[in-house]
Amino acid sequence: MLRYSPLVLLQVLTLLRVSHCIDMQALLKAFTSACQSPSPSKVVIPKGEFKLGEIELRGPCKAPVEITLQGTVKADGNSIAGREKWVVFGNMNGFKLNGGGVFDGEGNAAWRTNNCHKTFECKKLPISIRFDFLVNAEIRDITSIDAKNFHINVLGAKNITMDNLKIFAPAESPNTDGIHMGRSDGIKILNTKIATGDDCISVGDGTKNLHVEKVTCGPGHGISVGSLGRYVHEQDVSGIRVINCTLEQTDNGLRIKTWPSAACSTTASDIHFQDIILKNVSNPILIDQEYCPWNQCNKQKPSTIKLVNISFKKVRGTSGNKDAVKLLCSKGYPCQNVEIGDIDIKYNGADGPATFQCSNVSPKLLGSQSPKACSGPVTKAL
Ligand SMILES: *[C@@H]1O[C@H](CO)[C@@H](O)[C@H](O)[C@H]1NC(C)=O
Ligand SMILES: *[C@@H]1O[C@H](CO)[C@@H](O)[C@H](O)[C@H]1NC(C)=O
Ligand SMILES: *[C@@H]1O[C@H](CO)[C@@H](O)[C@H](O)[C@H]1NC(C)=O
Ligand SMILES: *[C@@H]1O[C@H](CO)[C@@H](O)[C@H](O)[C@H]1NC(C)=O
């Protein structure tokens, strides 16, 4: 029995099981009537496995809508190459998504034919879940697996909490970022496990007041602010806090990356990492202002993205390569006010010991650092 106050209209989706597909019309209809309801209402997708095609559930709605996904929805084959999204929740105030269910992007076939890391001739693949322009939203107890592209993309959000999510794809799956965000203020990501083939969390331009706590990341490419500076109309990034997280077997750990010869001059400020455990993480702490994959930029022109008020404190564990800490700042705009607290990173490989490199930055040191701060000769970024 589901109990709600009498004001709450309960919309239990009657699934018309047409060969185990969710009837898109039935889902849209349930959503539309929930959205039109003057009091808070709820749509339940029950236990079971259903195919679901590309769908956009957008407001504005008259009152908050809650969607409870109990079952597993699988991306219908139609939404493969050339499409940019699978499920969109957009333009709502007070939206909730929960229920313990699973979004299965069925990426396996698509990854093999469409690896954008290896070739430029690749079609866009759909992002599994898009949260567009949500205000005061709560996303809880949801699993996303095998997205064809990013698992979750948050754009234009204001005050959105993501709690107890599970996001999984194989380590070798391309571009399967866990949570990517941009142009958003007040995102919280809590108690979440992310293991994919790309960044666990990637922070795009215009992100403000992001709080990441108790997230376990790996395998994958770690937690990344940027890349910043690739496009002309980018916005500043500020107020990023990553605390009490564990990174395991990732290719990078805590990373800030900006393009040289950037297309814009923005500032990324107030970015803090604290209480981080590393387990065999390559490049555990990395500021890279010469980020230029596939040589798509002019490396001679220094990055014009300013990095200000940044700290790494209580970061400890093991590195997967000797580059334990690399702070490679822009020679045009040296990093300002970088604080390094207690750091204890070990590397046991034959080419060791671990190094700590600094370029165009004079970090303020607090507590103790191992390896010794700014002691290593500077080698190029990746
Ligand atoms: C943020 O959203 C949550 C969930 O809707 C709400 O309970 C909370 O009051 C909101 N916070 C602010 C500052 O608006
Ligand atoms: C991390 O968690 C520990 C144990 O719960 C707590 O003492 C510590 O204050 C937390 N770190 C931060 C930065 O909140
Ligand atoms: C950096 O921190 C200082 C001291 O807290 C503050 O005055 C300044 O406004 C900050 N700069 C930016 C760009 O956030
Ligand atoms: C550490 O990571 C490297 C790859 O970065 C891998 O080759 C190695 O097997 C890992 N070692 C352990 C002990 O997990």
UniProtKB/TrEMBL annotation:
One of its GO terms (molecular function) is polygalacturonase activity. It is found in: Secreted, Cell wall. InterPro entries: Glyco_hydro_28, PbH1, Pectin_lyas_fold, Pectin_lyase_fold/virulence. Pfam families: Glyco_hydro_28. Residues 1-21 form the signal peptide. SMART domains: PbH1 (SM00710). GO terms for biological process: carbohydrate metabolic process; cell wall organization. It comes from the Eukaryota. The keyword Membrane does not apply. Coiled coil: none annotated. The active site is at 221. Keywords: Cell wall, Cell wall biogenesis/degradation, Glycosidase, Hydrolase, Secreted, Signal. PROSITE patterns: POLYGALACTURONASE. Belongs to the glycosyl hydrolase 28 family. This is Polygalacturonase. It comes from Microthlaspi erraticum.
